[in-house]
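In full, the data:

***
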Amino acid sequence: FEMLSIADLGLLKMDLLGLKNLTIIEDTVRLVKELHEEEIKISQIPLDDKKTFELLRAGDTTGVFQFESAGMRRYMKEIKPTMLEDLIALVALFRPGPMELIPLFIKRKNGEEKIIYLHPKLEPILKNTYGIGVYQEQMMQIARNLAGYTLPEADTLRKAIGKKIKSLLDEQKEKLISGMTKNGVDKKTSQAIWELFPPFARYGFNKSHAACYALIGYRTAYLKANYPIEFMASLLNAEVNDIDRIAFLITEAKQAKIDILPPDVNKSFVDFTPEIEHDNVPSESVKSAESAGRRRRRNGKIRFGLLAIKNVGEHITRAIIEDRISRGQFKDFYDFLTRIQHKDLNKKSLESLIKSGALDSLNIERNQALQNIDDILRFTSTMRKTTVAQNHASLFGPQSSTATLKLKSVPPATPHEKLTWEKELLGFYLSDHPLNAHLERINKAGVKPIDEARLIKNDNSILRVAGLVSKIQRILTKNGQPMLFATIEDFSPQPMEVVVFNDVLNKTTPVWQENNVVIVQGRMSWRNNEPKIICEKAVKLEA
């Protein structure tokens, strides 16, 4: 029994790739139309948009397909793209192997190195990549233009190089050099041009693939540059199931001066939504109501979606929004409980709504609601049973509810508790940040922001950083001594890892607890190509 490939059978093999980026583009276009009655034909946007290339050259590429990684951002700033062709080349080059050509590509593009062609006929083929062979199509074109290959023959050459079949390579070498010689290329130059081909097998990429990826990347960059609020809302909605990613994106939004408003049962929709002024429009569905509401005006803010709150599911989210749209905003907490009688308003979802602040507008204090939650759930259960009984009224007429709700008084939640709950359920601190209470001391301590500290490339540089301890991993060394790795966060987009060896740990043990705010002094280390601080001193800041 012989196994045959799809190609051997004469069939066409196709790879189908599903990208959330296409959904982000589609949702952004939809939002722009609903908010501004402006229709974007994404296939017809200008490919030389000034704002888009300014955004790319600045490396502001969070959410931009293919160009978001730290390495891509660095090369983007160095390449300083001015046309789509530069983006296509970067997609093709940013892979193991061809990546070593990027510095040469940058120098030639920026005029720091002269572009030399082995033969004048190579210039039209390699001009757009500054004399560097990047794509499989370029090598096929060289074979056709200089050696007289037909398209099928050029494709055979491509396969021979890609599969590294020695006998076939030897045959192609002889054929290519012979063809170039017949077409007037001297033998020495023909041999030199052939030498371009074998190394190309390590990194050759088809331009059609790179062009598709670069075009999607350009389109997302175009929307981010020209419609930042709508784009960010769509990006947040695409990542709604990844709480860590949401936290990162919200930090990015704040840096772009886009305010993220807290969840609110009287204002939030299912998804993250650009905040606009609107009337409560009766609607048969939540989706059409959201569309009706969005058509008013944009004001530079995004409202947190209820579905993005941890433990709050889609069914209860839609029940809340649909009721609000049909009957108006909830007057208070009691009104909310009597109107929302959905089975999914259970202990877990109600706790999450309370802790996240989504019920703050209903004049209910968070800790009071939490401490009375069992009584609240008994009340809602009674209300549901009463409604069922009323719907099945007896011969003696409808029954009236005897349920009452009286909450015991308790101390209000502390600011620290509120922030801890927000971090737990939303993935980030929304109403405030724990560091704000310590800014005066942090500023006097001469600390560096984490994003600046991460730029220090010299090992053993002494520095201080301040932040919230968000994660701790304790381990034993080979010698059986305890040590730990702590992740600390400030207002920067990325955290910093701190390594605490046993001798320092013995002196600073009380410091290393999650949610502590600390100042750390230590040495910078770039082991494994990731910045870390080797802790020498650490203190906990008290509120």
Q: What stands out?
A: The first helix runs from residue 20 to 36. Residues 278-298, 394-398 have pLDDT under 50 and may be disordered. Strands lie at 259-261, 273-274, 301-303, 462-476, 482-489, 496-500, 517-525, 532-540. The chain is about 45% helix and 10% strand.
